[in-house]
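Quick illustration for those who missed Monday's session on complexes.
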Amino acid sequence: MSNTNSDKVTSVVLLGVGGQGILLASEIMARAAMHAGFDVKTNEVHGMAQRGGSVIAQVRYGKKVYSPLIAERTADVLASFEKVEAVRGAHYVKPGGLCVIANTQIIPTTVSSGLCDYPKDIDERLAKAFDNLSLIDAQQKAVELGNVKAANVVLMGGLSVGLDLPLEVWHEAVKTSVKPKFLELNLKAFEEGRAMTLASQSAGV
Amino acid sequence: MSELKQDLLSGNDAYARGAWEAGVTVAAGYPGTPSTEILEALAAYKQKDLHCEWSPNEKVALEVGAGAALTGARVLVTMKHVGLNVAADPFMTLAYTGVVGGLVILVADDPGMHSSQNEQDTRHFARFGKVPILEPSDATEAKDMMKRGFEISEQFKTPVIVRSTTRVSHSRGLVDLVDRELPDTKIGFEKNPRQFVPVPAFARQMRVDLEKRLHQIKDFAETDSINRIEYNDKSLGIITSSTSYLYVKEVWPEASVLKLGMAYPFADKLFKEFSENVDNVLVIEELDDFYEEHIKALGIKCDGKNFVPNIGEFTQSKLAVIRAKYEGKEAPDLSPVAEATGLPMRPPTLCPGCPHRGMFTALRYFDCIVTGDIGCYALGVAPPLSRIDTILCMGGGFTMAHGMDRSPEPKKVVGILGDSTFFHSGITGLCNIAYNKGASIIIVLDNRTTAMTGHQDHPGTGTTLMGDPTACLSIEKIGEACGIKRIFSVDPRDIDDNVQLLKQEFEIDEPTLIVAKYPCVLNDKSVWEEAREIDEELCVSCGNCVSLGCPAIEYNGDIPKIEPLMCTGCSLCENVCELDLIHKQGEEK
Ligand SMILES: Cc1ncc(C[n+]2csc(CCOP(=O)(O)OP(=O)(O)O)c2C)c(N)n1
Ligand code: SF4
Ligand code: SF4
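Prediction with thiamine diphosphate bound:
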């Protein structure tokens, strides 16, 4: 499984809308890699961009990692918390990389105030832009589990399918990143997300 | 925690860790992205012998730091790049008096202006003030250079700038942790007017000493491992620093590199040695041509800004394109996918239920100029609110209103700023309006916090950075003390009342201070109410609620709909619906 000796650096892109919990998701990702014995770098957006704007976070791990940034068309996997944001950042992922995308639409105020449109063909765009797509109802699943905020961890569960890190390190990372009273919920969310992506992959979607 | 030897830390956490390990006992700063989390992380150590404070502004913070450092304490002062403009006065003279205990000024630049109004390059300030400046490139170096900063400061008795950037501050990496160790310096101020009182007679000697000190630090820069040469393929030698170094290691791993950890004073000997040993020199630095200009002045031939942009954040993607150009090869494709054409923009917006939205909505009833300021409310410039006409710098919201008022062609002007900004530099503008017979309407959007930078306390919140209860300054009483007679406290959500008030005050030729008080809903969830819903059957789609620009109100051109997961129940849309069709979810219609 995860080989801490190879020179390969694995790159992960996370996309979404400010306030969706993308920072927690990147923390879990990074800690999982750390627990697996890798060098890790992440980069996240704070400040202005967190007020409901487009956000991107990046995580890279390997034997030795210099840059926290990911060059276009080199990410191994991608997760997006929103559909338009997924397409906006689609050029980060390399061909064939697993892309786990929440089946969520958040209408920006620019659309509500009539300045632009939310694309009606967003699902077709997703299908065209990603050749290894797993579209999952992360938000709905989190609501079912009792807390919509766990949607980000559902998504990370899905993403774990595309990375060769052992499950224990993911669990450990969830444990160190969430409050103890939400641990059980989040571990469940992780499992559900993983199961959904595995199912969507075997269904060939 | 204590058995942990390594942890995943952001650059900002690492700076805090470095200061903690170095035995800092006093820390002061003013919030500003991307520097804010450093003091918060340092305060979170809850170390008994460590005092951390949010000062009202950066000038105060640096002066507090200077006072403490003269007693021999190790001191950290933090701010964002533009904060150093505010602190420039003490900064420029502190270099003359020097320090006793180590003083590090952490200044965080924001290349790419992720959360800033300009892109100034702090390295110029170091040269201007004749102060050494260190440039870490990642979290590991952030901690190490913070500690080195204190040593250098004490060795040369000078303040030291550690310059961060957004990418260093907000990137995480693995950092080794060791214990806190207090320096064995004697604490207590020892009088020495020749060193600490720069009246002209003494300052002239300080000026001479400053130059001597700078030479000593230059020797240090030329010999210490903080600047290092990594020889590799000698056909190309790259001179670089900060995150650009990381991108060079990724994109141009075979090149020889001169990696600068101390950007100033310049390590001339290293520049010369390196350039003599490589065939071609390329300077890769983010923002200005700080090194390049100097290297060229030394008579060294090099490339630099003819390839590397001086605008915006530098990235490894940009470097990949530069390498291709430098070598005459085809550049990598950085463009978005075809399906991304025509996607709706998603700029940051005021949160659902943000109290600022109410006051901007009231202001939309008037043909007036609004001189705004920096804070979450700066987002009021965007459509559909479009209710901010100018922004310059913190405090400018009040002072510029007065300037417009006094111009030969005055129009109705309203000056706006937030509570944290009021204590930062709004009070002086208020004094000015009172003293110079102004007539502006000035509004403080008092959301009980410094929201933009992530909700820090300030002199008006009643709590310190260490979490202790303290004096809570009253904006209204400060207004009174300044001699302002017309002072009103309002709820920004009462749009009709506020429109009436503004109408009345526009007719009066005296200054008016309006304090619009309601907590930031992201900071204080106790004010949240049930989500509202729109009676879809009766709605005529008039657009009144949509024109609030609340992200919870989704509108695709049909009938507006409120997203219950986003709505905080602020009631603003209820107030503007003339048909009374918006109510609490499930409530009788
Ligand atoms: C000189 C300077 N220091 C710090 C900042 C960073 N900054 C931007 S807005 C702001 C304060 C915002 O607080 P407030 O005025 O209360 O408005 P709010 O965001 O709460 O609406 C700060 C600290 C800056 N832009 N300039
Ligand atoms: S954080 Fe607070 S002040 Fe800032 S936009 Fe959101 S609600 Fe408004
Ligand atoms: S009550 Fe109306 S204006 Fe306030 S948050 Fe909810 S939808 Fe937005």
